[in-house]
Write a structure and sequence with these properties.
Helix content: under 10%
Distance between the termini: 22 Å
Low-confidence stretches: 80-84
Structural class: mainly beta
Largest sheet: 4 strands, antiparallel
Radius of gyration: 12 Å
């Protein structure tokens, strides 16, 4: 499992096991009480456990690496505030 915060924000992404209907990549936001609020799941992509997720410094891309021996570079077309 992995976690990475979106540059200069309270938004973050986590990785976990994946299944047929779940890529294992989830976007979250920290609420003022420091409790995470689930915003969005990525659809498609990996077929095995996602081991690492990292945002590009400019926030336009997300890289993920998995036990399926693939690295996927996701293009984030929306600003994170619009996720979900």
């Amino acid at each position: 499992m992995s976690i990475d915060f979106f540059p200069n924000s309270d938004l973050f992404v986590t990785s976990s096991l994946s299944s047929e209907f779940d890529t294992g990549i989830r976007f979250w936001k920290l609420k003022s009480t420091f409790e995470p609020q689930h915003l969005y799941d990525l659809v498609g992509g990996h077929t095995s456990a996602v081991n690492v997720v990292r945002f590009a410094p400019n926030g336009q891309y997300l890289a993920s690496g998995s036990d399926d021996q693939m690295v996927i570079i996701w293009t984030l077309k929306m600003t994170p505030v619009e996720f979900g």
